[in-house]
Amino acid sequence: MLAKLLTYSLFGIDARPVAAEVDISPAAMPKTILVGLAEAAVKESVHRIERALVNSGYTRPIDRIVINLSPADFPKEAASFDLPIAIGILAASGQLVSDAFADYSAVGELALDGTVRPVKGTLSMALQARADGRKGLVVPVENAREAAVVNGIDIIPVGSLAEAVGFFSGAINIDPVPFSWEDTVRELGSYSIDYSDVKGQEMAKRAVTVAAAGRHHLLMIGSPGTGKTLLASRLGTIMPELTAEESVETTRIYSAVGRLAVGESLLLTRPFRSPHHTISEAGLVGGGTTPTPGEISLAHNGILFLDELPEFNRKTLEVLRQPLEESRVTISRAIGSMTFPASLMLVAAMNPCPCGFRGDPKRSCNCSPMHIERYMAKISGPLLDRIDIHIEVPPVPFRELSNEANGTDSRSIREQVVQAREVQRERFKGQNVSLNGTMVPRQIRKYCKLAKEAEGLLRVAMEDMGLSARAHDKILRVSRTIADLDGAETIDVPHLTEAINYRALDRSYWRT
Q1: Three-class DSSP labels, 87-154
Q2: Which residue spans within 131-217 are E strands per DSSP?
């Protein structure tokens, strides 16, 4: 007999439909053959499935079993095929009769005792199942809340092979898992940190506000312990809430790499990724024989924080240049090309010199000019040009640290950011750009109109500071955001002056 059940395989962060076909025919010796370009993890599943069948009370056919995973032109990985193959074997051997195969797909890994274990990428699989017109998707219990996010498809949770067989045969009725956006936001959509935790640093908070309002990349320079990491880690608390579309898009990435916490259905807070400076190029942008997302994609719709920026390998940093410009990363391998989203806000922090105390009023710097120059040269000019805002974060005086009054909190800053974002949303309605930080030159010329006095100021700043054409555009983008925060239509001298000050460190630290 022949049985066929639809399932899904991950390709990057996307799911592709796969037909699990099982044919059982008489043979002198029992034999199981698995075809369809299956990788090692899938080939090993044959033994796991056989024991799961027996230990669940079913009979392992003693005939020739041929299992085909179609289409056969792309590799099949992971153990998510266990459950559909096992159900296919039972159907092909006559132990299961079901009319539900045409309406329901199934994914899941089997333990030797027949328990169904969670798999990666269930959210993407549910989205693809809905696109394929399926009525429902049978998934492991642990993945049910994640898949239930997708409207228009029934998510059937099963904890064992016997339970899945009971559902397909109609012997038991399993209700689909419900999903409530409001309840999920209430449970997962809050932060435990706030900018009121940061004492002093009001000038730095202003720069962070501008950066968040226009999604401008930010570089903070300061001595150890001045609060750079505190400022960066709280950036998500002042950014607008993730929309439903952004949340699903971000959750898909985490689901595909198995980074969702147990019981977590959606990511409703902005991702904050802070990789160690020893990270490889593949770890940062993604890679592998079958490419998987790297840190820049895990920071999609959130913040990528690179602490101790000069300590990163220079070649590793250089791979950031294209993703920062295009908000995506494409990785090509023999099996095909995969494009991962990378719409992120880059925040970097560094010391002013190897010892960290250059320019510190209390402690002396022991670094020679040669050491300082070599340290600063680890960051290339092209990468530096792609960072819109550069600020110094000075040490906090004792009187501010001991002050019991709270500083500016996240709620008040967020109100300013949301208001400025709304202005930008109206400005770029119907265009492929939604924020000032991603404007292209044509849009800069259209929307960054300078007052007459401001034009002369920009000309003098460009000549005195020796800035590049890209830095010129960055200043205009930042000044547009500052004007939006101020509620101004035209960029005036105060707006431009503040934006120019955010590039002043180019000359004092890199001598450009």
Answers
A1: HHHHHHCCCCCCCCCCCEEECCEECCCCEEECCCCHHHHHHHHHHCCCCEEEEEHHHHHHHCCCCCCE
A2: 136-140, 154-158
And the tokens for 80? 């998510």
Which phi and psi (to 5°) does residue 158 adopt? -130, 145
| Residue 408 contacts residue 196 (beta carbons within 8 Å) | yes
Coil/strand/helix, residue 236: helix
Report H helices in 338-380.
Answer: 369-376
Strand order in the sheet with 272-273: 272-273, 303-306, 345-350, 218-221, 389-392
Give, as one character, the DSSP assignment of residue 276: -
pLDDT in tens, the chain (512 residues): 799 999 999 988 999 999 999 999 998 888 999 999 888 889 889 999 999 999 999 999 999 999 999 998 888 888 899 999 999 999 999 999 999 999 999 999 999 999 999 999 999 999 999 999 999 999 999 999 999 999 999 999 999 999 999 999 999 999 999 999 889 988 888 899 999 888 888 899 999 999 999 999 999 999 998 899 999 999 999 999 999 999 999 999 999 999 988 778 899 999 999 999 999 999 999 988 788 999 999 999 999 999 999 999 999 999 998 898 889 999 888 777 889 999 999 999 999 999 988 888 888 888 998 888 888 888 888 888 889 999 999 988 877 777 777 778 999 999 999 999 999 999 999 888 889 999 989 999 999 989 888 888 888 888 877 777 778 888 999 999 999 999 999 999 999 999 999 987 765 666 53
Token code pair at residue 438:
């991603």
Q: What string of H, E and C letters represents the secondary structure of 444-474?
A: HHHHCCECHHHHHHHHHHHHHHCCCHHHHHH
Q: What gap in Å lies between CA 492 and CA 68, rounded to an integer?
A: 68
Give yes or no for a cis peptide into 240 (omega within 30° of 0): no
Q: What angle do CA 238, 244, 246 make, to 5 degrees?
A: 65
Integer angstrom CA distances of residue 55 from 4, 14, 33, 142, 172: 23, 34, 21, 22, 20
**Phi and psi, residue 94, nearest 5°:** 85, 5
Tokens at residue 127, please? 């989205």
CA distance 395 to 360: 8
CA 502/CA 214 separation, integer angstroms: 14
pTM listed for this prediction: 0.91
* Beta strand residue intervals within 275-426, DSSP E: 286-287, 292-293, 303-306, 328-333, 336-341, 345-350, 389-392
Q: Is the CB of residue 284 less than 8 Å from the CB of residue 296?
A: yes
Return all residues near 154 (Cβ < 8 A) that are at least 6 apart: 135, 136, 137, 176
